[in-house]
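INPUT
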Amino acid sequence: MTARVATPAEFVEEAEGCFGRAANAAGLHTRTFELGGHRIRMQFAGTRLLDQMTRALAHCVSTEGPAELRVLFFDTESTRTPMAPPAWSPEQYTGGGQISGFHNERVETSYQVGWDVFQCLDRERGVAVYWTPSWRVLPWWEASFPLRVILHWWLRDTQLQPVHAAAVGNADGGVLIAGPCGAGKSTTALSCLGSRLKYAGDDYSLVRVAPQPYVHCLYNTAKLDPEGLSRFPHLARRVANRDRLDREKAMLFLNESLPEALIGGFPVRAVMVPEVTGRRDTALEPAAQSLAMLALAPTTTKHLPSERARTVGKLVRLTKSAACYRLLAGTDLAQIPAALTNLVERLNGEALGR
Amino acid sequence: MTREVLYVSKPKVISEAFEDEVVAINLETGTYFGMGGTAKEVWTLIEGEITVDAIASAVAERYKRPHIEIAAALQPFTDSLLAHGLVAVKTAEASVPATQLAGEAGIWETPKLTVYDDMKDLLLLDPIHDVDETGWPARKQDSVS
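OUTPUT
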């Protein structure tokens, strides 16, 4: 099949035009957020994607003002507005979501096969478009980390990077908790609710890697599989998707249900790599910085495959300027926040000369 | 006279030396690799471009072990580096000076390449065959809830 001809930048303009028609048909809704010190405007054609794409960011709502990036969301079904036809052939879709040969230094494009989500960014004009044929088929997890791919692209030339890690700490500093899905990031982070450590994420966090590592709470969500939820029975009534737990992880929006547990950000003192031991007691042991790198990088660059070399470079800077510890997580959950609090307060004291 | 030397497959491979371990990534496949101990030392030698025989000589000298024993122990490791595309072979002039390994030698251990292959599920994705009348991938009916 031969693709029609359009450059990536022309395609973004066409997609922007489609959004304009969709917004005329279904209504324009605007929300503004400040993420990692950058004001970003999200605009929606109709309301079908609005709640899904903004709830996780509600703790970052910003005042109106000039935005550095405008992200346009629409779906075809609810707005009855088609997307421009692809200017590439089906063979160009890749497993990682990139559209091979249809991106360049200025423009990024992605189509997540199976998720039916198309995203593109024109860096030069500061415009991104997020489209799906139907709001009904949007995967549930998209609501837990909206903008993840677009932010990754847009922040390419900065010291900021969305990183696959949980984060807990206090205003003086805290830790990232790294590892692939199922490693215990959520359990570790959620075990700290109610302790002296505040919550800044359980899945993706926004990290400024230099000059001093600093983590911003990017998403106020928490996700737990059924086994994880059974360890936190007191959170069950706060689960937002209780009627869909047969096919979705339990999702909490802490900005709504436990706002006092959240913190906007803190300096990163260390990277924790959890290991579930099956033993009762929890212990911490110093580990090599390469362990932090190997816990953070493969999983982050798997989810965010474009600009892999730049991402790896940022993660090297991060892991070489933070300590690394292995968290030997025991079954007695109360010991985890106690161990982490002791460590965080000690590291903060050392860093601040107290 | 020319010889075959090993070299790091840049730019598709990047690596970073941490205190105890080298972390390398094949950017084309997204696969990560860890190399500690003697594997880190061998990687350091390959970064300077070197023959397999010269690696064996440098390591045998460092650990005071017979050359034949070290050469046999190195073979599976260098084969693995080649198989994963981390290094390649080229022909170079004969006199390739070996990179000097810094610091005290530790305890000899057979070099090992640890592979962190988190990308398999992505690479196994089925290619797109069906598109709808607009040109976008056709959705499966059962994906609509």
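end of record. The mean pLDDT of chain A is 94.
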